[in-house]
């Protein structure tokens, strides 16, 4: 009789243990080493100082905190992100983003990039001034390249902008070539910012039609 009672008792204990391991809704059940599943990340854009936030997934340690708590205990202000340097300018979505199209992706640049600057007289004149400073010594004053003038003697074979192979190149392609260079032409991305490159593109497009 006693052995039967023990069997029932052990069976009930086993059922209780198995039932406690089952997950249900927001209850994950019993977890082995819960710290491996629910780490405490330091999210830079949030600041949760309540140590009991998300308490239903608290770790099993005595001094542990809930899963959503993410204040940095090593920062004197408990911040997860340091204050920006003095005079830092907040990005408001108007400045150009870093240019990341691969240097060999000329077709992609030509298809996807659009000139953000209007073809106004002021923009064209500024583009011309930049062209004369950075481009004219190789491409010539009218963009004829190695076809005419003394430029051909120094840099023979430079294709003119109005040639069949270049006259229909889109703005994005021209911008990409200015940025990364092509063939014997060196990259100018470090010498001209994006706005200046787009201004040159506006002027080059005029030379394409000559």
Automatic annotation (TrEMBL):
InterPro entries: Cyt_c-like_dom (IPR009056), Cyt_c-like_dom_sf (IPR036909). Transmembrane segments: none annotated. Residues 1-22 form the signal peptide. Keywords: Heme, Iron, Metal-binding, Signal. Pfam families: Cytochrome_CBB3. GO terms for molecular function: electron transfer activity; heme binding; metal ion binding. SUPFAM superfamilies: Cytochrome c (SSF46626). Residues 122-208 form the Cytochrome c domain. The keyword Transferase does not apply. The keyword Metal-binding applies. It comes from the Bacteria. This is Cytochrome c. It comes from Marinigracilibium pacificum.
């Amino acid at each position: 009789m006693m052995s039967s009672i023990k069997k029932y008792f052990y069976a009930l204990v086993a059922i209780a243990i198995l039932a406690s391991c089952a997950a249900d809704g927001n209850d994950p059940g019993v977890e082995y080493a819960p710290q491996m599943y629910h780490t405490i990340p330091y999210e830079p854009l949030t600041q949760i100082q309540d140590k009991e936030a998300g308490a239903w997934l608290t770790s099993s340690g005595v001094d542990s905190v809930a899963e959503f708590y993410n204040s940095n205990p090593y920062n004197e202000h408990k911040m997860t992100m340091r204050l920006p340097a003095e005079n830092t300018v907040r990005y408001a979505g108007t400045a150009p983003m870093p240019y990341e199209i691969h240097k060999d992706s000329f077709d992609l640049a030509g298809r996807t990039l659009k000139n953000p600057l209007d073809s106004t007289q002021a923009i064209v004149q500024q583009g011309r001034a930049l062209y004369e400073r950075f481009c004219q010594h190789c491409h010539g004053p009218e963009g004829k390249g190695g076809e005419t003038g003394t430029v051909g003697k120094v840099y023979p074979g430079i294709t003119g902008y109005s040639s069949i192979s270049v006259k229909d190149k889109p703005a994005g392609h021209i911008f990409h070539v200015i940025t990364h260079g092509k063939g014997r032409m060196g990259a100018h991305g470090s010498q001209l910012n994006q706005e200046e490159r787009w201004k040159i593109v506006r002027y080059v497009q005029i030379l394409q039609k000559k």
